[in-house]
Amino acid sequence: MHSTTCGVGASASNLASLQTTCSSSNSSSAATADAHKMVHHSNDDAMNKIPLKSSSGLDDDEKNGGELIQDTAAAEEARREQMRANVLAWMKKLTIVLICFIGIALISYVIISLCFSDWPKSTPLRSNNSTVATAATATTATATIVGSSTAATDAAAEAPESSSESPSQSTAPATTTAATIRTTSTTITPTTTTTTTIRTNESTTTTTTTTTPPPSNPSTSHTFITFTSTDEQPEHNESTESTTATTAEEIAIAGPAIAASTSPTTPPPSPATNVDNNKEFSSTLGVFENAAVCSDMQPCSQIGSDILARNGSAVDATIATMLCNGLLTSQSMGIGGGLLMNIYERETGQSHYIDAQVVAPYASKQNMFDDNYNASIVGPLSIAVPGEVMGYHRAHQKFGKLPWQDLVAPSLKLCETGYQMSKHQENSVRRTWSHIKDNPHYQVVFLNAETGEQHVEGALLKPPAKLCNTYQLLSDNGPMDFYNGTVAKMLAEDLNELGSIITLDDLAAYTAEMRLSITSTLGKDTLYAVPPVSSGSVISHILSILEGYNLTRADLADEESYARTIHRITEALKFGFARRPELGDPRFIDVRELVSQLNNPDSAAEQRAKINDSYVLSGPQEYGALSSYEEDPYGTSALSVIAPNGDAVSVTSSINYYFGSGLIGPRTGIILNDCMADFAMKGSNQFKLPASPANTIELHKRPMSSQSPMLLTDQEGNVRLAIGAAGGSKILAAIVEVAARYLWLGDDLKAAVDAPRFYSQLFPDTLEYEDGKYSESLLQLLQKRGHNLLPLKTTTDSVVCALARNATAIYANADYRKRGGVAGF
């Protein structure tokens, strides 16, 4: 904002006159002050011209016959004229205010009339359908809104943005997009105008989108926006123009890349983002005012939100949500694994990390898997000492507010009521059934006792009873019981019976690290990352390389620009992955200098200068690789939380492969990890590079991990982005691409998360991409640059959980690739 102050100034002649009357004996400052006083009196006299009265009531001229009567009458007339002018000025101002008020009232009346004149009061739901067909496809958008209120029928939600389809997308398979919005609020009716730009083979329909900010009403409880897409055959070979003015209860949506706006304008979509051969998915965007939670399961996110509503801390909500996920997404995480947590405190402006990764047992040996690599993936030797519960303990000790028992209680309730099987869990069971099918503990949970078939999505499951008993013991005795109490003794007996080399001494000696997170700058923002064994510093380096390109929406405007942007991101990923094998557990290897380099903007500029927009480099050594590593598996779970006080948590947890080692503790019911596979094994790979010496097995050493919980804050210390991902080594590419799209390329959060992904990690040197989501012409442009392309038939290889905050609201998006859930208020 700008302000201007105005005053009355003296003319040049007045100033000259004043200067001549000033005494030469006065100082320059005194002369200036006197001049200002005289100028002020001179301006008053010039404006008023009214004679002053003497103490007797008559001046000398009036005593001498009233020779100045005529001048006095003129002065009185001037005074009255001045008063009339003042009155007129005030009347003009009042008239303008009244006109503005009447205009606003009329406009509001017209809008309300247009929106509700045809809305029957007895109809609780209304759907607005708009169908647009091209020469080969049809896109149908359906919005369904469910609202509840203490007054009449009211809802408050941010309208999803419409996006335009590029020319290269005119042959995209047709999709149906449905949106469901649920709110609980008092009377709030923000108005939204939603329009769409669609180009077909024959004509172009252009409209615009205008969105009012989400309401800032503390009575608003929840807002969910759920998008569901399915294939649909085209019915028409023509374009349809549609412009709809709606409220929050009537939203027209077209295209899959739609999200609540985090910017004042709606950018066009990138080429090929409207194609998706995944016939069944649901991507959830939540818009909240005060707090939000994103996790792999909506019931678990709701538990976290409820903890925040009870004045629990961000860490309280995180722990309660993760305990829930350990039951409902046991294929990916649980108390038998490890975690990395990034915690930001708004009040102090500091971020701490907790490293509760697994460690190698005391009895492990560096060459224990040299002749049997498969033993590092499945079976008792693949189990590392779990750190998950110690991470909960350290976090709750420093940042918790609610009693520990309150954080476990919601999960114990789920043990009684059960939960509905998710699609991701169904797929995970099918994917790994060959190595868990003979385990009776898995059979009880995942097999239908009547048919003998595997349960499918929607089936009511109950967690293993013995795992629920372990939860009860941890609730009663505290989290340290896992390492030196009843649970520790039970777990040690389980591990011994299963053939593991982990002992009670391993559990008792386990510790979790907690220190300040490492920081780097992105423009005016601060990026917080967890140091090794996390790969957060590698992500910081990659983003720093990309920042120098000053990416904008124009870098997705056409296929050539889009191909160049993919190429740049891919090359930056390769430079990051080239240094990753040099990282390891900082308690065993000094990585301070390397981490400092990775967080240095000058180092990023050097790498950026090596990137050629026209071709790839010749091999791993050209990117600076000194050693190699094996590709990580596809497990892991990510979670993000923003609390009402501005604190935030991003955490990633894993048991490594789906269902870890494939083993369950017969006494504890704990699904045990196979994280020993994360250590580097002996030998070299096809690139003739040795295995990473920084990540070899040593006693109680942590293996290097792709887990990278990240936090981004603005200049004022407010959290701007809390993001994490699952998917093994594909985590890095997923976080980088979503962050780049959200921060620089003009996507809002949902569009950034839903956009098609590509992956490159140098080992192997291939560019993987989600099949069916990129046009052939775009892929050819990438091949011309020397990329070895490999399509991925599944979209579940990486899964992002992200929260974004601006001055308007908190936006929470759970990736459709895993069908996670969000909650908040």
From TrEMBL:
<feature type="binding site">
    <location>
        <begin position="705"/>
        <end position="706"/>
    </location>
    <ligand>
        <name>L-glutamate</name>
    </ligand>
</feature>
<dbReference type="GO" id="GO:0006751">
    <property type="term" value="P:glutathione catabolic process"/>
</dbReference>
<feature type="compositionally biased region" description="Low complexity">
    <location>
        <begin position="151"/>
        <end position="211"/>
    </location>
</feature>
<keyword id="KW-1133">Transmembrane helix</keyword>
<keyword id="KW-0800">Toxin</keyword>
<feature type="binding site">
    <location>
        <begin position="654"/>
        <end position="656"/>
    </location>
    <ligand>
        <name>L-glutamate</name>
    </ligand>
</feature>
<feature type="binding site">
    <location>
        <position position="728"/>
    </location>
    <ligand>
        <name>L-glutamate</name>
    </ligand>
</feature>
<protein>
    <submittedName>
        <fullName>GH11925</fullName>
    </submittedName>
</protein>
<keyword id="KW-0472">Membrane</keyword>
<dbReference type="GO" id="GO:0036374">
    <property type="term" value="F:glutathione hydrolase activity"/>
</dbReference>
<feature type="transmembrane region" description="Helical">
    <location>
        <begin position="94"/>
        <end position="119"/>
    </location>
</feature>
<feature type="region of interest" description="Disordered">
    <location>
        <begin position="44"/>
        <end position="65"/>
    </location>
</feature>
<keyword id="KW-1199">Hemostasis impairing toxin</keyword>
<feature type="active site" description="Nucleophile">
    <location>
        <position position="636"/>
    </location>
</feature>
<keyword id="KW-0812">Transmembrane</keyword>
<feature type="region of interest" description="Disordered">
    <location>
        <begin position="151"/>
        <end position="221"/>
    </location>
</feature>
<feature type="binding site">
    <location>
        <position position="678"/>
    </location>
    <ligand>
        <name>L-glutamate</name>
    </ligand>
</feature>
<dbReference type="InterPro" id="IPR000101">
    <property type="entry name" value="GGT_peptidase"/>
</dbReference>
<dbReference type="InterPro" id="IPR043137">
    <property type="entry name" value="GGT_ssub_C"/>
</dbReference>
<dbReference type="InterPro" id="IPR029055">
    <property type="entry name" value="Ntn_hydrolases_N"/>
</dbReference>
<keyword id="KW-1202">Platelet aggregation activating toxin</keyword>
<dbReference type="GO" id="GO:0005886">
    <property type="term" value="C:plasma membrane"/>
</dbReference>
<dbReference type="InterPro" id="IPR043138">
    <property type="entry name" value="GGT_lsub"/>
</dbReference>
<dbReference type="Pfam" id="PF01019">
    <property type="entry name" value="G_glu_transpept"/>
</dbReference>
